Amino acid sequence: MGETLGLLAGGLAQAFEPINFTMIIIGCVLGLLVGAMPGLGSVNGVAILLPITFLVPPTAAIIFLAAIYYGAMYGGAISSITLGIPGASTAVATVFDGRPLAQAGKADKALTAAAMASFIGGTISVVLFTLFAPPLAEFALKFGPAEEFALMVLAFATFIGLGGDDIPKTIFSILIGLVLATIGLDIISGQPRLIFFDVSGFLHGINFLVLAIGIYGIGEMLWTLEQTKGEVTVHNVKLSMKEIIKDIKDVKEYIGTTTLGSVLGYFVGTLPAAGATPASLMSYGLAKTFSKQPETFGKGNVSGVAAPEAANNAASTGSMLPMITLGIPGSPTTAILLGGMIIWGLRPGPLLFTEHPEFVWGLIGSLYVANLATLIINLMFIPVFVKILTLPFTILAPTIYILCVVGGYAPTQTMHDVWLMFLFGVVGYLLRKLNYPVAPAVLAIVLGPLAERSLRQSLLSSQGDPMIFLERPISLICILIAVALVLVPVFQKMKRKRKAEQSGQES
Length: 507
What we know:
By secondary structure, the chain is mainly alpha-helical. The chain has one domain (2-498). Helix content is 73%, strand content 1%. The protein is built from 22 helices and 2 strands.
């Protein structure tokens, strides 16, 4: 323990060296901007800015890219809360409660909660990274395809609680998302699947951001225009430093869900190929399932912002663990970081800690500094973000529209996806009118490909025997927890129904 603290102190000293500290600050600011721009996200941001790193030493380079990654995790919440458009897949769960809070004139509360939860999630995950890196890396290796599929089933089980009391509608929404996730080329045979009207644009599948931006950007705008007849009231936001300090003190309201989301996010992030998106979705689902006021989720509950933000920041740190200790990227962004490390002549794996300790501990030390720096920068800019909401809707609506088009075009750079985004916008608007939950469909299209791949790999290895999921201890535990999570809202609904009947009889 003493040796670890000594190495960490050396890493922190390295992080505060002028060149490294400068790279941290620049990386955090760029990450915030990249994360807030719909259609970009941490993957594109790190990939675009990778060439800049060849101008600095390897340690400063990886610190810069890691700071961008951290900043982007914070930044994704900005557009989710202020505009209702998720900056990246990791921030989609933040929209559910962040946008209603902003519409109620509490954008400062939502943005502060997102920043504080991100900081707590980041801090807990870096501490866990520092203390338990080698044993956690070994445990993550025990996750084969069967365990990954069971984890996805567990993630889907948390969605059941996202659709309110109408469980059949929620399941229908999940199934729609899973069908959309199968469009494209079969992952094993390579044969085209569900290529509607032989349109070649469907061959690359449906990009998650196209669906999310369509439903939450275009769909939300259509709904707002209908509800307000085009006359959207502008909130008279009077934001002072006193208000922000008060919002920071309110952290006690969501500290429980934030801590749970942080630990869950870090663990899910350490699993190869899982990443921050499933972590944030599972964290939101669990926060709602175990909340004393689950009916307030989706209408502006601060815990609904804090839980996914804590989880996606914790997962971003967790995903670096298998990259450094095993040479296996835990997310698409860490795959680019891994490529950068190899270019700089560093070989990730168990020997990295002994061969290049100054590099590893410099990176770990920089994560502590980047986490604090991003929190301070974020809190300083909250008044600017809130000002966006005071713009007249005649300016805001076209801005949202343009951002939606850019966000829809950016991932694949084809007009096919832009037209598809508009279609999803109309469908999202109609589903909302029919009172169908759209969140489970959006989440299912994210996890669908991951679940399908691990399911088919498992069945191929067991020669089609589904008992493989029950014979392996970790997958069995995940499936049992999933069953329990599905049954919890069912029993809660039955209990409420029984209470309503009893109160009706008494009156």
